[in-house]
Amino acid sequence: MQRQMETGNRLPGRRLGRTVATLSLLASVACSSAQQAPASVTAAVNPDDVALATWNMCGVEQWGCEDTGGAKDKFQQLRDLVGDLGVRVLLLQEVCSEDLVASAVRLGPEWHSAFEPYEEVDAEGRRTFVDCTGEGRGRAGLGLLAASPLPDAEAVPTPQPTVGLHRGILCARVPAQGMRVCNAHIALRESDTAHPDWEFRDDQLRSLMTAAAAGADDRTVLGGDFNSPPPGAKNATAWVWPRELYATYRECDQKGDASRKGRPTYEDGTKIDYLFTLLPRTACEVVDTEASDHRPLVMRVSRPDSTTAPATGLPG
Q: What's the whole-model pTM score?
């Protein structure tokens, strides 16, 4: 996929101006927290739990994904997440719109999807969608796939590059699981080709937090591909992270109040994929796959209807 490595130098400055683009919704298609580190998802399954996953599918072949398999390989990985790990809600990035629709159909009548396309903006302000390579695969974007209808699916307005690729944030209610989810694909560094020193990740992460708080905050799972390693002393751009994110929520792989680490999710050995929630986490797993340059991150939480919503700052 498109990727730029973090460097040891802080960006020279933050932008003076910003363009806010409201992404249009393309389609909504029918077809008690653990005190210690969350256990493996493959542990005994509690019927009162819900499993969710985030996965950058690397479905846009021209973005360096030629060697990660085709639509069939990626669907097989989705089916394994659903069948083997019992995942009921998936936050997907770099997915092709027609692959997403077909996946919902093949998984069964209870499965539904929502999709938000990426847009490429040129120096004259012209917008074009990004087409997936391969006949009949549709457009590239981020999506939601759930064993539930996805009412109120909407794209969240967030600052985007003036010239370059617009990713986005997509939120929806998941009534069958009693929760709400927000899926984010955060910008890369230097993603504005006209202003490579402008940083967008800080504002986009804040937009994600605002979107989560606007709904049922204590029943929301927010996550996706943040294109950022966890905040810490070795991360020269840790300042892009809102301090409140880890203070308010707990991340799937987080082991305690002060922890900001997690197992690698990207092929270069870094963690850049996340799932945050206030719901009690009961399991977390990073799944090996050859169908993408990202590894799916799977989190199991107590079903909202089966537990009292936890207070802010829940332990470990």
A: 0.85
